[in-house]
Write a structure and sequence with these properties.
The structure holds two protein chains of two kinds.
Chain A (H helix, E strand, L loop, with lengths): L12 H9 L5 E3 L2 H10 L16 E4 L2 E11 L1 H12 L1 H13 L4 H4 L12 H18 L8 H20 L9 H6 L2 E2 H14 L5 H4 L1 H4 L6 E4 L5 E4 L1 H16 L10 H15 L7 H15 L6 H21 L4 E2 H8 L5 H8 L7 E7 H10 L1
Antiparallel strand pairs in A: 1-8, 2-3, 3-7, 3-8, 4-6, 5-6
Helix pairs in contact in A: 2-17, 4-14, 6-7, 6-13, 6-15, 6-17, 7-9, 12-13, 12-14, 13-14
Chain B lengths: L1 H16 L16 E2 L2 E2 L7 H8 L5 H26 L14 H8 L17 H15 L3 E4 L7 H12 L21 H8 L5 E4 L5 H9 L27 H17 L7 H16 L5 E3 H10 L8 H4 L10 E5 L8 E5 L1 H16 L5
Antiparallel strand pairs in B: 1-2, 3-4, 5-7, 6-7
Helix pairs in contact in B: 1-9, 2-9, 2-13, 3-8, 3-9, 5-9, 10-11
Classes of the chains: A alpha+beta, B mainly alpha.
Chain lengths: 376, 364
């Protein structure tokens, strides 16, 4: 049943967005109090059944019954990245290489795989965002799901570092973890840490080794079994770990580290995005390295539910933008397909929060949308 | 369907990797190489298409059990071949195959001690899956059993094969207590029984695996002074066989085992249906490799997976085995329209399936 676009013509999304985007501008920002009002209304209902995202549209606000449809799009900061990646590839490549040469162990880790550093792994980034949103939403008491993947990833890296530092005869209390892990560690450390997680039935770190086959830049580990049987952690993941930890240290009354992992991850992503607006020549290379680190840090992929609000919600926006230049998608059609049990308004509230601004959330009067769609 | 795909794999493997005349390995280096009148392997006709059709994106943990086991087998074989290329076969640390302890390290004890939700002595599902994979590999000549460090267990191997063929192989997983009596026959039992003597399983390098390992990790053809497939140096450039078939095979086995055991949905079935649907739609109209984007979305929605349609365009960033779908704008279309073009290897997978159906009188 059609909600906004006809079921057999979903590709009208391009023309619809073009018409809405203007000129004249026909959309308006969904403001903070409206977002909170919508988030508060949605309780334990799967997105395709939520009354907010039906073909009838929703009330614009508490006091305004004008019917509107919601539209979401990637934050404009991402456009800066897409454009730079497209038009300044050579320069970007050189700058990334320069930065990599300054990170201990990075040249070894990316040997022969430097080209992967130019490409963001959007599907993994989607998973990172999904897990972070789930974790963050839990801390706001939006839902019961704790964002286990984000929590577990943090626990794993903490324990791995401890394990390797403990087993290194030359390590001191003030040892640089990044430099220490960059040297690689042997199989016994890997098996020991893997067993801890396997025995608990949480996840198996061995499955993460396989990620290095496809995209080294975002893969957490690399196993050199060519004569030497050593394991290497992605130095960019270790850098990300440091950033997260520093942010955690600066928090007021932070609570348990694993419980605020989602919030910290979204803030780091938000910082990286906002920096793209600056005038530092290295900001794009820096962005790529930060995103790779964030993806590599995310090693646990067990929770299917989180994939809907991250992997599919986010990476669908990316795919449509990258491949067809579709600037935004209507929420009713997304809600119908996504069928997520997380309250979609709550998810969108988190994603559009000004502290990280991963998406932009606008609304358009239903009447205008219907008129455009009927005219296409 | 994964069962059928496995049968296809074994046929394709024999045809591609082994010399038809004497059943020996083809030389490494790819189809452009010829050594003593025998050509290298043509991966493009059947094996790469098979990988493209069978690489599914499901929860990795579900597929992981067998993939790890197979990765260990292939890693050990690769290490052995690497040391051969280094003339270093006397290396005392060399571990040539998969031992009982490897299984225990990976999966824990085969029988439960008895927990809140698990009865004492209940067999662990991962061990059952491992046994099922070993049976399949042994039946198709992919593994060899060794009763000591270097002695092949030819008689035992034949006995096990016979029992498998006579359907006498363990299926009901009874037995109590003692770990060494946990099965009456079988390969896990063999490993358990011979563990003190050094019993192990090796990948059968003579059944094409040496060539695969050399083509996947070794030097490609055309490097001056280096024999194609040589493993003595690390090669980071283009590979003769770029697709990690050794990952797709155990994943497909995991799905096949699930298919045998499962009463409801098989892992990845939806994705297989979607792929077949897309390839069939493309074949209906010239140029036979393209569908309209609306049709593409429609096929995903038909199988209740509309939310996954766009993600598939990004999948090949981190999954080398996944099929590549290219989006092409239809020039001059109003409203703007796009076509999705499928890579030839993906379509060949479906064509090979159809040809097989025709040849076998409609077996799906």
């Amino acid at each position: 049943m059609k909600r906004v676009l006809p079921d057999n013509m979903p590709t009208l999304d391009y023309e619809l967005w073009k018409n809405i985007f203007g000129p004249p501008v026909r959309f308006e920002l969904v403001k903070k109090d409206e977002r909170q009002w919508l988030a508060g209304k949605e309780f334990h209902v799967s997105s395709e059944k939520s009354v907010e995202w039906m073909k009838e549209g929703r009330d614009r606000s508490r006091n305004d019954t004008t019917k509107v449809f919601d539209f979401i799009s990637l934050s404009k900061f991402f456009d800066l990245w897409f454009d730079h990646r497209k038009y300044f590839e050579h320069d970007l490549n050189e700058r990334i290489k320069k930065q990599i040469s300054l990170i201990p162990g990075a040249e070894l880790f990316f040997e022969g795989e430097m080209n992967t550093l130019l490409e963001i792994n959007w599907t993994i980034l989607g998973r990172v965002i999904g897990a972070a949103v789930a974790n963050y939403g839990h801390s706001r008491e939006y839902w019961n799901s704790t964002g286990l993947d984000a929590k577990e990833a943090a626990t794993f890296w903490n324990e791995l570092k401890r394990q390797v530092v403990d087993d290194d005869d030359y390590a001191t209390v003030t040892a640089d973890d990044l430099a220490l892990l960059a040297k690689g560690f042997d199989k016994s450390d890997w098996v020991k840490i893997g067993d801890q997680f396997r025995e608990r039935g949480d996840f198996n770190p061995d499955s993460e080794i396989l990620r290095s086959y496809g995209h080294r830049a975002s893969s957490p580990f690399w196993h050199e079994n060519h004569i030497l049987d050593r394991y290497y952690a992605n130095p960019l993941a270790m850098k990300h770990h440091k950033v997260i930890f520093n942010k955690y240290r600066d928090m007021k009354n932070p609570g348990v580290h694993e419980d605020v992992q989602g919030q910290l991850t979204l803030e780091v992503l938000g910082d990286a995005l906002k920096r793209l607006r600056g005038d530092d020549d290295d900001r794009f290379a820096d962005f790529a390295i930060k995103i790779h680190g964030m993806c590599a840090f995310h090693i646990v992929r067990t929770d299917h539910k989180q994939q809907k609000i991250g992997l599919h919600l986010f990476s669908n926006l990316v795919a449509r933008k990258m491949s067809r230049d579709v600037g935004g998608s209507n929420v009713p059609d997304i809600a119908k397909q996504l069928k997520t049990g997380f309250g979609l308004a709550k998810v969108l509230t988190i994603l559009s929060d000004k502290n990280h601004k991963i998406i932009e959330w606008n609304s358009v009067e239903k009447e205008i949308v219907d008129k455009i769609v009927n005219g296409l | 369907m994964p069962q059928r795909e496995l049968t296809d794999f074994n046929n394709y493997w024999r045809m591609s990797m082994l010399n038809v005349i004497n059943g020996s390995n083809r030389p490494p280096g790819g189809s452009g190489i010829e050594v003593g009148g025998i050509k290298g392997v043509d991966y493009d006709s059947t094996l790469i298409p098979w990988c493209k059709g069978n690489s599914v994106s499901v929860d990795q943990i579900r597929l992981d059990t067998l993939r790890q086991l197979f990765s260990l087998l292939i890693e050990r074989a690769r290490n052995r071949l690497t040391l051969i290329d280094h003339n270093d076969l006397k290396n005392p640390n060399i571990n040539k195959g998969l031992h009982f302890n490897d299984l225990r390290n990976l999966y824990g004890r085969p029988q439960a001690k008895g927990y809140r939700r698990t009865a004492a002595f209940e067999y662990d599902g991962k061990w059952k899956d491992a046994e099922a994979m070993f049976i399949n590999l042994l039946q198709n000549g992919h593994i060899t059993l060794f009763e000591t460090k270097d002695t092949q267990a030819k008689i035992i191997q034949e006995e096990i094969k016979q029992k498998i063929n006579m359907n006498l192989h363990q299926t009901d997983w009874h037995g109590t207590g003692n770990e060494s009596q946990w099965m009456d026959y079988g390969i896990c039992f063999f490993l358990s029984n011979t563990q003190k003597k050094g019993g192990h399983i090796r990948l059968n390098e003579l059944n094409g695996w040496e060539t695969y390992i050399r083509d996947h990790w070794g030097a490609p053809a055309g490097i001056t002074g280096i024999i194609p497939g040589n493993l003595s140096k690390k090669h980071t450039g283009k590979r003769t066989m770029p697709i990690p078939l050794h990952l797709v095979l155990p994943e497909t086995m995991a799905r096949a085992i699930d298919e045998q055991n499962s009463t409801d949905t098989v892992w990845g079935k939806n994705q297989s249906d979607i792929r077949r649907g897309l390839a069939d739609k493309a074949s209906h109209l010239p140029p036979h490799d393209t569908v309209n984007l609306n049709v593409y979305y429609g096929v995903f929605s038909k199988y209740n997976a509309g939310h996954m349609a766009d993600t598939f365009f990004l999948r090949n960033i981190d999954d080398k085995t996944s099929a590549r779908f290219e989006l092409i704008e239809i020039q001059g279309s109003k409203p703007k329209q796009w076509n999705v073009k499928f890579e030839p290897e993906f379509l060949r997978w479906r064509i090979n399936q159809r040809n097989r159906k025709r040849n076998t009188g409609g077996v799906p």
